[in-house]
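As a warm-up, study this chain.
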Amino acid sequence: MTRAEFPGRRVLGMSIIGVGIDVAEIDRFAASLERTPGLAQRLFLESELLLPSGERRGVASLAVRFAAKEALAKALGAPAGLHWTDAEVYVEDSGQPRLRVKGTVAARAAELGVQSWHVSLSHDAGVASAVVIAEG
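Now compare it with the structure written out below.
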Protein backbone atom coordinates (compact mmCIF):
# COMPACT_ATOMS: atom_id res chain seq x y z
CA MET A 1 0.00 0.00 0.00
CA THR A 2 1.40 3.39 -0.93
CA ARG A 3 1.42 6.41 1.33
CA ALA A 4 -1.22 8.03 -0.91
CA GLU A 5 -3.54 5.09 -0.17
CA PHE A 6 -2.80 5.20 3.55
CA PRO A 7 -1.85 8.77 4.49
CA GLY A 8 -0.48 9.06 8.01
CA ARG A 9 -2.26 6.97 10.62
CA ARG A 10 -5.87 7.85 9.76
CA VAL A 11 -8.16 4.97 8.90
CA LEU A 12 -11.84 5.49 8.10
CA GLY A 13 -11.88 8.90 9.75
CA MET A 14 -10.32 7.60 12.97
CA SER A 15 -6.74 7.93 14.18
CA ILE A 16 -4.56 5.45 15.96
CA ILE A 17 -3.75 7.07 19.29
CA GLY A 18 -1.56 4.30 20.65
CA VAL A 19 -0.43 0.71 20.16
CA GLY A 20 0.75 -1.60 22.90
CA ILE A 21 2.12 -5.13 22.82
CA ASP A 22 3.14 -7.39 25.67
CA VAL A 23 4.16 -10.99 26.26
CA ALA A 24 4.09 -13.03 29.46
CA GLU A 25 5.83 -16.34 30.03
CA ILE A 26 3.01 -18.53 31.34
CA ASP A 27 5.09 -20.62 33.80
CA ARG A 28 6.73 -17.50 35.23
CA PHE A 29 3.31 -15.86 35.62
CA ALA A 30 2.00 -19.00 37.36
CA ALA A 31 4.95 -18.91 39.76
CA SER A 32 4.22 -15.25 40.56
CA LEU A 33 0.59 -16.10 41.35
CA GLU A 34 1.72 -18.95 43.62
CA ARG A 35 4.42 -16.92 45.34
CA THR A 36 2.30 -13.81 45.97
CA PRO A 37 -0.98 -14.40 47.81
CA GLY A 38 -3.70 -12.04 46.63
CA LEU A 39 -1.90 -11.11 43.41
CA ALA A 40 -4.72 -12.42 41.22
CA GLN A 41 -7.24 -10.26 43.12
CA ARG A 42 -5.03 -7.18 42.66
CA LEU A 43 -4.67 -7.77 38.92
CA PHE A 44 -8.11 -9.05 37.90
CA LEU A 45 -11.79 -8.47 38.46
CA GLU A 46 -13.78 -11.48 39.68
CA SER A 47 -15.36 -11.73 36.22
CA GLU A 48 -11.88 -12.20 34.72
CA LEU A 49 -10.95 -14.96 37.17
CA LEU A 50 -13.92 -17.12 36.20
CA LEU A 51 -15.04 -18.82 33.01
CA PRO A 52 -18.66 -18.29 31.93
CA SER A 53 -19.38 -21.72 33.48
CA GLY A 54 -18.23 -20.41 36.88
CA GLU A 55 -15.05 -22.51 36.95
CA ARG A 56 -11.71 -20.89 37.72
CA ARG A 57 -9.90 -19.64 34.63
CA GLY A 58 -6.61 -21.43 33.80
CA VAL A 59 -3.23 -19.78 34.20
CA ALA A 60 -2.65 -19.37 30.42
CA SER A 61 -5.92 -17.47 30.15
CA LEU A 62 -4.98 -15.25 33.09
CA ALA A 63 -1.49 -14.65 31.68
CA VAL A 64 -2.92 -13.46 28.36
CA ARG A 65 -5.29 -11.11 30.22
CA PHE A 66 -2.32 -9.74 32.18
CA ALA A 67 -0.45 -9.22 28.89
CA ALA A 68 -3.50 -7.37 27.52
CA LYS A 69 -3.56 -5.03 30.53
CA GLU A 70 0.15 -4.33 30.08
CA ALA A 71 -0.40 -3.70 26.35
CA LEU A 72 -3.32 -1.40 27.20
CA ALA A 73 -1.12 0.65 29.53
CA LYS A 74 1.52 0.95 26.78
CA ALA A 75 -1.13 2.06 24.25
CA LEU A 76 -2.02 4.84 26.72
CA GLY A 77 1.61 5.94 27.05
CA ALA A 78 2.28 3.91 30.23
CA PRO A 79 1.36 6.69 32.66
CA ALA A 80 1.77 6.14 36.39
CA GLY A 81 -1.32 5.61 38.50
CA LEU A 82 -3.39 3.25 36.35
CA HIS A 83 -5.23 0.63 38.42
CA TRP A 84 -5.17 -2.95 37.12
CA THR A 85 -8.83 -3.52 37.97
CA ASP A 86 -9.91 -0.40 36.06
CA ALA A 87 -9.55 -2.47 32.87
CA GLU A 88 -11.47 -5.65 32.19
CA VAL A 89 -10.60 -8.11 29.44
CA TYR A 90 -13.61 -10.10 28.32
CA VAL A 91 -14.65 -12.16 25.31
CA GLU A 92 -17.88 -11.69 23.40
CA ASP A 93 -20.06 -14.69 22.55
CA SER A 94 -18.50 -14.55 19.07
CA GLY A 95 -15.08 -15.17 20.64
CA GLN A 96 -13.79 -11.65 19.97
CA PRO A 97 -11.76 -10.22 22.86
CA ARG A 98 -12.76 -6.79 24.15
CA LEU A 99 -11.76 -4.23 26.77
CA ARG A 100 -14.02 -2.45 29.23
CA VAL A 101 -12.43 0.49 31.07
CA LYS A 102 -13.39 2.66 34.03
CA GLY A 103 -11.76 4.88 36.63
CA THR A 104 -8.09 5.70 36.08
CA VAL A 105 -7.90 3.92 32.73
CA ALA A 106 -11.06 5.56 31.37
CA ALA A 107 -9.81 8.98 32.51
CA ARG A 108 -6.49 8.57 30.67
CA ALA A 109 -8.28 7.23 27.57
CA ALA A 110 -10.64 10.23 27.58
CA GLU A 111 -7.68 12.61 28.01
CA LEU A 112 -6.13 11.14 24.85
CA GLY A 113 -9.41 11.01 22.93
CA VAL A 114 -9.71 7.22 22.73
CA GLN A 115 -13.09 6.18 21.35
CA SER A 116 -12.54 2.49 20.67
CA TRP A 117 -10.20 -0.40 21.36
CA HIS A 118 -8.91 -3.27 19.25
CA VAL A 119 -7.54 -6.31 21.10
CA SER A 120 -5.79 -9.47 19.98
CA LEU A 121 -4.90 -12.26 22.43
CA SER A 122 -2.85 -15.41 21.89
CA HIS A 123 -1.07 -18.05 23.91
CA ASP A 124 1.10 -20.85 22.58
CA ALA A 125 4.38 -22.58 23.36
CA GLY A 126 4.39 -21.29 26.93
CA VAL A 127 3.97 -17.63 26.03
CA ALA A 128 0.91 -15.39 26.26
CA SER A 129 0.82 -12.31 24.04
CA ALA A 130 -1.54 -9.40 23.50
CA VAL A 131 -1.81 -6.39 21.23
CA VAL A 132 -4.01 -3.39 22.01
CA ILE A 133 -4.75 -0.52 19.65
CA ALA A 134 -6.36 2.65 20.99
CA GLU A 135 -8.32 4.52 18.34
CA GLY A 136 -9.89 7.95 18.46
